Amino acid sequence: MKEKKYDIVVVFLLIGVFMAALDNGIISAALTTINQSFEITAQMGSWGITIYTLGMAISTPIAGKLADMFGRKKVFIVEVILFGLGSLLVALSPNYTFFIIARLIQSFGGGGLFVIASSHIISAYKKEKQGSMLGGLGAMNGIASVLGPNIGSLLINVSGTWHWLFLINVPVAIMIVIFMMIKMPETQEKVRTKIDKYAIMLFSFSTLLMMFAINNIQTGNITGSIFSLSVIGLIILAIIGYAIMILIEYKNESSNVDSFLPYFLLKKPAFSITLIMGVLSGMLIGAIIFIPSFVENVLHVSAANSGYWMTPLALASGVGAAMGGKIVDKKGPIFALVVASIVSIIGYGGLALFTYEVVAFFVFSIIAGLGFGFTIGAPMTVLATRSADSSKNNSTVIGTLSVSRQVGITIAPTLFATFIQVGFSQTGTKIKENLSQAHFNIKDIPHKFMNSMQPDSGSISKTLDQINQIPNKAIRDAITNGIIEATHLAYMPVFLTAAIASMIILILVIVFKKEFKY
What pLDDT, on the 0 to 100 scale, is given for residue 92? Predict the structure, then answer.
């Protein structure tokens, strides 16, 4: 009877998680519109996504610790209020600086919802049911992440403005707060009372340095720029920052400070391996963000409809997360992660190497969605709590895993955007190669079409339309083939990196299987 009492509460926990995860991707459908609204560059506009993922990474473990200290019910309600307030401020932003600050406030509210929901399930349900319940939570989280662009496109088409992408959160947040105040039971653990502010600041600063370093890689001089102070120097500083943070956490073991990333967890080999897998799983989410751009540029789908092509992957991720939860209950998290990794390798690998047409895209995106859902659902959460061998402070354990995943989600888009820029920078070279094979050279291209020869990741359809106006079919085909080759060079590393991340997860699970003692 106890578990039935929690079922309706879990429904509203799921809604809260869905709402926060949705805003991780919904903005991607409106980036161009928002950039035009505030008259900013695309590079500046990307901070609307980056600041949200970074804020989520910082606030996730903090919210988990506060939930242990003051009670999950109180902190969950505060988080929802903060998220709703941030959403309202984003929608009413008079300028881009205000917009970024509001996105940060919104992320601070959204960061704790998943970790509190997960720890509530672990404390409220028996071990035999935790896999299925966490699988449902992972399904909601995964579906929201990949449905974001889809729903964003729909809302913009219906309302005609990007503001409703965020205003819609306000009534949902109010509904969740009212219900949770009435129905959600209070739970809390005995923990230390001081927040680890120095480690939090070092983590935030080091992650920002890492992102700036990746951004500073120059597409025209990759090798030279990587070894410049603006890249390698910032990476070294970031690594030093992370190392100092771990040293602080070590010293906090003997003090009355509630650690940001507890050293007693970090020194457990099984748990540390789980955190590495968490970072890698975040990269799978980061790759999915680029699917609308991929279908637009590789499959030549219109920008207005590209978000809708996330639907098969979104549905498959929900199915995968639910199946993963059931497999965890029956076979355990190790077996589930092995299956998840193999499926993800096939899906993401297929998107990288074999997707040149619509049928292949649907097949491999569905497979990738199943693997993605398996991976981010119950297996890692269950593995983390059991690896930590902790019967208390589950919020801290899950929060630590969540922050590792947010690191992957935060850094991956910056890395992948660099890959895409490098790929598109090869457009001129590929066009020259194809022209040479067809016994032409660059001078044979009509002068008025020369400005179309260097497309970026957002204008390839327009570029191809202009090229189709070139009278000479042989020249037209050579140019088109060069652009298509460059486009595949741009997107192949994104999905190939996700496939490699899944392969590393598989290797870690197999090699360190004995460290997980169950």
Answer: 93
Q: Residue 175 corresponds to which tokens in the numbers above?
A: 């509904």
Higher-confidence position of 375 and 308: 375
The helix/strand/coil state of 433 is helix
Residue with tokens 């969740």: 176
Sign of the Cα pseudo-torsion (401, 402, 408, 411, in order): negative
Q: Are residues 199 and 311 in the same domain?
A: no
Contact between residue 508 and residue 277 where contact means Cβ atoms under 8 Å apart: yes
Q: Are residues 280 and 184 in the same domain?
A: yes
- In a shared domain, residues 206 and 335: no
Is 329 among the domain residues? yes
pLDDT tens by residue, 323-343: 887 888 888 888 989 999 999
Backbone angles phi, psi at 254, to 5 degrees: -105, 15
Half-sphere exposure of 484 (CA within 13 A, CB side): 14
pLDDT in the model for residue 2: 47
Give yes or no: residues 97 and 201 share one domain.
Answer: no
pLDDT digits (tens, 9 = 90+) for 377-416: 678 877 877 776 655 556 667 767 777 887 787 778 778 8
Backbone φ and ψ for 195, nearest 5 degrees, come out as -80, 140
Last residue of a domain, one of 255, 281, 303: 255
Please say which residue of 237, 255, 273 terminates a domain: 255
105 & 164 share domain: yes
Q: Show the 3-state SS of 236-278.
A: HHHHHHHHHHHHHHHHHCCCCEECCCCHHHHCCHHHHHHHHHH
Nearest Cα neighbor of 67 from 114, 2, 17 is: 114
CB 361 within 8 A of CB 164: no
- Tell me if 381 sits within 8 A of 139, measured CB to CB: no
What digits encode the pLDDT tens for the residues 453-494? 555 444 566 677 677 777 778 888 888 888 888 888 888 999
Structural domain that includes position 239 = 195-255
Is residue 262 a contact partner of residue 400, using CB atoms and an 8 Å limit?
A: yes
Closest listed residue to residue 203, CA positions, set 191, 193, 214, 211: 211
Q: Are residues 381 and 363 both part of a single domain?
A: yes
Please give the helix or strand (H or E) that residue 224 lies within, else none.
helix 222-226
Angle at 423 between CA 419 and CA 427, to 5 degrees: 160
CA distances from 257 to 315, 354, 390 (A): 43, 51, 18
Residue scoring higher pLDDT (362 or 116): 362
Number of domains in the chain: 2
Task: Find the range with the poorest average confidence among 25-34, 161-170, 364-373, 447-456.
Answer: 447-456
How far apart CA 118 and CA 6 sit, in angstroms, is 13
Alpha-carbon gap, residue 130 to 121, rounded angstroms: 7
Half-sphere exposure of 121 (CA within 13 A, CB side): 30
Q: What is the DSSP letter of 393?
A: -
